[in-house]
Amino acid sequence: MKLRPLDTETAGGEAGVTNLMEYISVTSILLILLVVVMFTVNAVFMEGPANTLRFHAFTDIGNGISVRIVDIYVIAPETGTMTSAFDIPDEVAGGDYYVEVEDSQQYQKILVESGDIKSRIDIAGIGASKGVTGRTTSRGWNVISYDSAGV
To answer: Are strands 108-114 and 117-122 parallel, antiparallel or unpaired?
Structure first.
C-alpha cells in the first residue's frame, strides 16, 4: 500500500461545497435583482404611460366640454332656457374622474381631475362674460343647462 496526497477533485470534498456555495450566492443575488426590477418595471413601464394617457384624455374631454359650453352660449335665447345632454367616457385608463368649472374673477377654466392627474382648459370664446358653474362625474349622462334668468 502506498501513501499519497488526497486529490480533492477526485475525492469531491471541498470542491463540492465550493460549488454549492457559489450556486447559492449567485442565485440569491439574482433573486434580489429580480425583486428590484419588478418594482421598477411597474413604476416606469405601467404607471408612467397610464398617467400620460390620462392627462391627454382629460385635455380632450375638457376641450369637448368647453366647445359644448360655447355652443350653448352662441345659440342661447335672450329669454328662456336651453339644455344639452352629452356623454363623456365613463373611465379613462381604468379609473373614474370628475369635471368641475373653476370660476374666479380672472378666468373660467374646466378642471378634469383624477387623483394627482389634472388638466385645466380655458372656456374658449366667452371669457368672463357669462358665469359658468357646475360639477359632474364621469358616470352617466351629463347636462349643460342655460337659463336667461340666471338661475
So the answer is: antiparallel
* 3-state SS class at 84: strand
Which strand ranges, in their side-by-side order, compose the sheet holding 98-103? 117-122, 108-114, 98-103, 135-137
Q: What is the pLDDT of residues 81-133, one digit of tens each?
A: 888 888 888 888 888 899 998 877 677 888 899 888 999 988 876 655 667 77
Cell 475525492 found at? 11
User: In this structure, what are the phi and psi dihedrals at residue 47, rounded to the nearest 5 degrees?
Assistant: -70, -40
Residue type, 119: S
CA–CA distance, 130 with 73 (Å, rounded to integer): 8
Nearest of 104, 105, 112, 107 to residue 88 by alpha carbon = 112
The model's pTM: 0.69
Q: Where are the beta strands (DSSP E) in 77-140?
A: 81-87, 98-103, 108-114, 117-122, 135-137
What does the domain layout of the chain look like in residue ranges?
39-147
CA distances for 68 relative to 47, 63, 141, angstroms: 31, 9, 14
Angle at 112 between CA 137 and CA 54, to 5 degrees: 105
